[in-house]
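Lecture notes, continued. The same structure-token format from the folding unit now serves as the input rather than the output. Read the line below as a description of shape only.
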């Protein structure tokens, strides 16, 4: 069996407005380095929304970790923080100035989800993007995960039952192609 090794990048930060912009640029630069230019805009938008949620809602502090993992034909970006409360997906008023972050993540990603960490030390919110067929990522200087890891970050327990309904969202192919930004 031939397998392509994964590529991995991790950034630890305090989710303050100035740092959110820096991480957006780091994510963009990393994807450019991996020759994944078509994924830069959706990944940068979605990670910005997730970090903004940490800034607005996470307790006891705003410390978090952004992890970017490229494996085979999928890019997974996750944001891990120390607050165990899962975000609530809610309907937004058209005139609302906030509350649309997870809807934007859902709109630009192939799939997304969230889970509390098994040790009770917080949560992980993640999204995936499909890698375009023509993309041939360059080798990365960053450490790699084991070849068998295909679950979103911190989810190596594949034998466990699925999370409650509504926690993982995957858009149908027709819905994906209908979204244009």
């Amino acid at each position: 069996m031939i397998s392509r090794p994964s590529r991995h990048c991790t950034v630890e930060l305090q989710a303050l407005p100035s740092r959110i912009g820096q991480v957006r640029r780091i994510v963009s630069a990393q994807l450019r380095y991996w020759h994944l230019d078509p994924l830069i805009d959706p990944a940068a938008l979605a990670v910005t929304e997730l970090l903004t949620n940490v800034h607005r809602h996470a307790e006891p502090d705003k410390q978090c970790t952004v992890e970017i993992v490229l494996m085979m034909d999928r890019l997974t970006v996750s944001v891990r923080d120390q607050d165990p409360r899962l975000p609530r997906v809610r309907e937004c008023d058209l005139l609302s100035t906030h509350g649309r972050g997870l809807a934007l993540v859902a709109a630009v990603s192939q799939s997304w989800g969230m889970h509390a960490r098994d040790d009770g030390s917080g949560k992980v919110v993640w999204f995936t993007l499909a890698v375009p067929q023509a993309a041939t990522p360059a080798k990365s200087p960053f450490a790699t995960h084991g070849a068998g890891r295909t679950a979103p970050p911190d989810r190596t327990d594949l034998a466990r039952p699925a999370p409650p309904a509504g926690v993982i969202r995957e858009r149908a192919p027709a819905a994906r192609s209908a979204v244009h930004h």
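Point for the exam: Confidence is low (pLDDT under 50) at residues 139-151, 155-181.
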